[in-house]
Amino acid sequence: MIIILEAKRRKSLKVRVGTLREAVEELEQFRDGPEPKGIDMIGASDMKARCGEVWESGMQIARVSYNGRVWGTDGKEIKLSMWDHDAMDAMLRRDPAELVKSVMERMKQVSN
To answer: Which residues neighbour 102 within 8 Å (Cβ) at sequence distance 6 or greater?
Structure first.
């Protein structure tokens, strides 16, 4: 996966990440990290249109917004706190039956 990081007065980056959680961490570091000398912190209005896009295999699969929330391409929020890496991997790469099984197992763990 790759996250695109672009903002006014900042060098544009494409950063390889392994998970959506890592994509959030990269965006937060880009947003909050040390500013180059003489450049102010970036705000939401400084971020360029593609900033936060997450791509895999030539397709956009998600977007990380300024506040670190993750959105699917359908516009619905993906709540990372509910998902471990395996469940997220199932959602992005595996067949629907495997996704349902993984989600049900995770829900059992959360409710116990």
So the answer is: 86, 87, 90, 91, 94
